[in-house]
Amino acid sequence: MTEFAGLRELARLIARIEPELETASLSILAHERKEEISNLLLEGLGVRIPVQHSSGEYANHLAILRAGGNKYTFAQDWREVYISEINFCTCRIPAGAHGLLVHHIDYPGVIYDVSRKLAEHEINISKLNVSREQKGKNALLVSVTDEEITPTVVAAIEALPQITKVQSLQ
Questions:
Q1: Strand 51-53 and strand 25-28: pairing?
Q2: 73 touches 83 (CB < 8 A)
Q3: Is the pLDDT of residue 80 over 60?
């Protein structure tokens, strides 16, 4: 098992939630071990897509996957590899994480509403990030949890006002 092994699992997660992988492209940002990083991501995605290699070094960023108008950034620190950004939302989703991606129209109280639903199902939040394009527009709430998210929990959160899509990380 290499230090990048979690990339395969993270790519599998994206392959499950991203409907437009056929038109995707991958940019490798890492300075070293570019082939290993590309191979793990492509294996996890399960599709052959164009891969570009950058000539620079980008701190802890390893790669960027663009698919269907979405952008996923992969990063690594001393602990693990993780998804560090989805579109405009900074996050930290490690391989094997439980949690949710809640796409919604920005409104006051979304954090309360989602947190309340998770609490009702006895699900503890370990990390939470919310970002928006601009006030009142498209937004993304990323919640990493200690417990698995069931289809019942997904349905309860999808029923909230202004929620457009809920995706489980499992």
A1: parallel
A2: yes
A3: yes
